[in-house]
Protein: Peptide deformylase
Organism: Flexilinea flocculi
Amino acid sequence: MILDIVQLGDPILRRKAHKISKVDNEIRILANDMLETMRDSFGVGLAAPQIGESIRLIVVENYEDEATEGAEKKVYKLINPEIVWRSEETVIAEEGCLSIKGLVGQVERAKSIRIKALSIYGRPINLSASGWLARIFQHEIDHLDGICYVDRATEVRQINQEETEDEEAAPSDKNNESKTTV
């Protein structure tokens, strides 16, 4: 089911989300609906507060190996994700957000991170991520803490109509650097 994505100005985006204490079928259904909503909006990540739920749940979809032609997309559905390590090396890149339409900004993020979380079945998992995937995770976990990318961004600017059309025309192009909506 496609859910409504709340926009900046809604107080839920500024609240720290609650930990999920019970992983059940309701959470799994919500994660699936979030994934469907994210895909419908041409995003690569979505946090539960963005659909009006103040709980610590994120979904992310990204190519497992961006350098390999024909690489498969990998889906992550993470409960109570927590960054437990960040590299000292950082990268500045452009980000956008499904909850802040029409704007993008330059954001500095750790190049690599490690995350601990629960799987959609309540099992503990540990992940390492670098590059674009690390950026997506950091962006979505920020949402769980009431932080929006514009709080960290420099050089925030409006997306022009041509960029919007390009992004919508090529939502599945894994090498499309303009795909910034996380």
About this structure: The chain has one domain: 11-169. The radius of gyration is 15 Å. The first helix runs from residue 25 to 40. The CA atoms of residues 109 and 138 lie 8 Å apart.
